[in-house]
Fold these 3 entries.
Entry 1:
Amino acid sequence: MTLAESRTSSATAHPLAMTSAAEVDTVREVLTEAGLLTEHVRYAFFAPEEPPKSEVLAGDECDRRFRAVLLDLATGRSWDTVVSTQTRSVVSQRELDPPRDGQPPIIDTEFEMIEDILNADAGWLGALRERGIEPASVRAVPLSAGVYDYPDEVGRRIVRAFGFRQDHERDHPWAHPIDGLVAYVDLTRRTVDRIVDEAPHPVPATSGNFDDPQVQGPPLDSLKPIEITQPHGRSFTVEDGHVRWGKWDLRIGFNEREGLTLHQIAFDDRPICYRASVAEMVVPYADPAPVRFWQNYFDCGEYMFARYADSLQLGCDCLGDILYTDVVVADDLGNPRTISNAICMHEEDYGVLWKHTDMFTGSRETRRQRRLVISFFTPIGNYDYGFYWYLYLDGTIELECKATGIVFTSGTPGEYATEIAPGLGAPFHQHLFSARLDMTVDGERNAVDEVEAARVPMGEGNPYGNAFRRKVTRLSRESDAQRDADAASARVWHIVNPEKHNALGQPVGYVLHPTGQPTLLADDASSIASRAAFSTKALWVTAYDPAERYSAGDFVNQNPGGAGLPAWVQADRPVDGEDIVVWHTFGLTHFPRPEDWPVMPVDYTGFVLKPAGFFDRNPALDVPPTVSDHCSS
Ligand code: CO
């Protein structure tokens, strides 16, 4: 029985319980009864509308609400609605003003119609014919358009499309980009607005068929199986989304925009984080060529990528004593769609936790670290992203993002791309993620200190010049709290509770360790810098507002820019000792390698949150020695 099936009545649901199929049905019925869901109207977004934090923490009975963004395919009009499944009513509805608000995300229906629109256009067909390419062999996807100097695009629902040649049914088209050609498409009129046709380039011919045994070569035969066994079963329990493991206690959630969400994360009954998610991500490309300068994909806000979450397979995606959880999303028609095995949970041995062999006492102690892994994987177009939250026995929280799949290709490797196969380019790009961390370190009132190492000049008090100290700067307002990482000074951010102290009199805290990799590399004056302003800083701190959820704003697709974080911090609210949200930008700057072709070995990025004075001593002293068939002690 799945989680969704076990709970048929929403009346008994925890305010943060995962969406059930019955709730998706109710929302659709309510929107239909209200006359909002008519023949040409499709869902462009659907997610639980969580109650404000104060109501959840107070243990109030909360209304179950869902947000649905509706798009009329025939007219291009769209509405942002909130529905209560408890009262079976539309709580709010607002028609979007696309030139100001942006457009709803790109939906499945539009993926399905893009090739038909292109194949009805004489300009597109002519450009293919000129290249000697059969239109039926060309695959295309609706790529988010961004906002550029095209006044005629304002307020219209636009995507841009490249063609990729597919030589047979099993052939991966990404290997055969038809470069020098891009179509600008109006999705409402279903017409091509404009064809940009540069001089034809040869279409790269090398196979990208990494799943073809001929391409793979004979299998490596020296690898013996690895099996993970837990003879006494797993050590965690999950009950209607409520997870308990060791001293950890939390809830899991899922929505199509952020994917996995963690809620009310606590250790030893002490709260640490009320809600943690990846609230946005963007993949900006570096190639300024006339056909591709506009390539920037917000996989959360423009594509709702977690609606494509993979159904994971035991033994392939996940190894060990696994607990899978199904999730329910809504399809374009508002029907529930269950993604089985979407969330994977298991324990992992993680090497040595602590150890000492003492020269004086003869003491010889070792404890093994382990972590609870909560993860999901989602493909979006050519790429695949994995999001792995790790909780460790010593109170550490980590997010690891995995990027794999197929790099985006071009047929013109040049200054801004790597030639990864003969004639095949992979333009440079970044993957920039925005974690939204609604911190509640031992309570709701928190503050952030920037802490870094500072050299001390040789002189009085430092006669031999060996000194270095810790420089602590409190970030007191939103305007102070827009910070860059600096690996050279070991810069970290301590999220402290100024009202709670440990036994040593220090404010309890958790420290955010950034990787210190680059934020957005595009020019400050670029369109993407304004539309993805969150990605220009490694850290933002804002005052909590339940309406402030998505780093680049609610409607990212064709958003003119300035939405989300840059808009909210205009108020310059105090963040010292307030109910605050920490936003962390992290990611990969990807100069593709030949080894990334034809399928990319996983690349990693993420961040770590470690207790810093949250405990009075090592909180993992009580971890018992390992009892194992393989450990003789
Ligand atoms: Co990449």
Entry 2:
Amino acid sequence: MAMERLDKLLASTGHWSRKEVKDMIRQGRVRVDGQTARRGEDKADPRQAEILVDGQPVDCGGLVYLMLHKPAGLLSATRDGRQGTVLDLLPDHLRRRGLFPVGRLDKDTEGLLLLTDDGPLAHDLLSPKKHVDKVYYARVDGIVDGADAAALARGMTLADGLVCLPAGLEPLEGGRACLVTLREGKYHQVKRMLAARGKPVTYLKRLSMGAVRLDESLAPGQWRPLTADEVASLRRERK
Ligand code: URA
């Protein structure tokens, strides 16, 4: 990998903004190959240099994993000629890294969306064969009950021919809402399954993907890097 500016390398990890990186360097908290870094413009080779922040090694050549609280109103796509996408919420240096959403949420769906440049991990998390559960909170027009839970648990075949794997449904709030657990992600799947039960979805939010739960301290539109533990849990689940 070519030599790159230190400030760019550190910001590209997703852990700090460009401004925070500048401050860290000014405060003498960044060391490169044993020397305290003084200038963000200094260059380093991310594959070879040992880069420490506050004494902790930082992997600047690695992959990026972000958790976004997707707001309603944006597409889960990398770009669209006419409409805003979730990538618009990221700063330039992360947009340029080629991150993409792990699966799609509908434009009006909110909640957990992972963004990464790790193609193989994203592929595995979405594969029904890997059994990575995705949990959604849905509010419905109507009342969901045990019969709906039983129908989802058997595996529904919709009128349009869509065959769904067995899924979980737990009624909440007297049946006006529910948790739906899927291990696949077909187009509009939660909405189509509940509509087929005569209980159309009025609000939908994804709460978790495998062991990674939406960090409720993130307001819609906010994001943060996954912690090392969260990335490790996703890697374990793909097995
Ligand atoms: N199911 C849906 O219907 N919509 C989503 O956005 C995700 C799952």
Entry 3:
Amino acid sequence: MSVSAPIKFSVKDYKADLHNDWCLGCGDFGILTGIQMALAQLNLDPDKIALFSGIGCSGKTPHYIKAYGFHTLHGRVLPVATGGRLANSAVTVLAMGGDGDGYGIGAGYFVNSGRRNLDFTYIVHTNQVYGLTKGQASPTLSKGRKTKSMPEQNIQDGVNPIAMAVAAGYTFIARAYALEPKYLAGILVKAIQHKGSALVDVLQTCPTYNDLYTKEWYEGADLPEKKSRLYKLEEHGYDGVVKDPADLDEIIMKKAAAVARSYEAEPIPTGIYYQVELPTYEDAVNQRIPALAEKPLVEIDTFHRDVDPLLEAMR
Ligand code: SF4
Ligand code: MG
């Protein structure tokens, strides 16, 4: 009897055969590549991946990845991804969307998803504008800044996604740069492997509407020494991983360090700001309904009430 070799997936196995209509030079291309590289590194079966997206240019990302995809309503990506995750715990769930989608209209969901610690990875394309609707200021644009798509300076301050994630309870918090897909892929691998809610905030260039935070700006092309305005936390002795999750003092110290780093504006830190292993929402659900620990909800016959294994399990 011959034994078939295990399948080894490559980046091309995650490429959907669909015309991509992002603008030329958009940072979303780098994020797409980073996601596909991470999926290949983890050798995840495309059949076992569920991608969810909100509205915006970045919302199209699942269209370009060969896996299951769900393009949801504006700001609603996290509740829909939560439903997907709870319905089928056998799949890897990635949620994605823009900074306007996630930190604006979706901000309430962002906070409550963090405190649940459900096992999924949320990738936010942070480009400081609402690209799809012609470049209005998004929630991450600082006060007083004016992109070429805005008639006047921004009159309100920007939010700090890393600090918000720390406060909300995300257990893996990282930042990367869209035009470094290899580095982004490495971060995404760790985020996907992490058991719990992971936020990866990706600094994304929008050459069509954002003439402030450009490739040239991030990479310091205008500086005399041409030094990047980004640096990698781990190359500067920073370690945001909590070693003892039972040690509250260590948790508070690492959270405070992550928040402090998140306010560094130039250069901007990339890498893992904070990580801790804590019980997930699924752990709590499985404890209450043991049947769900054995197989995903989608595989349980919940239709025939008199033999409902969920109710049986709760008796
Ligand atoms: Fe990318 Fe900006 Fe074009 Fe949208 S508008 S596709 S974010 S460059
Ligand atoms: Mg945006």
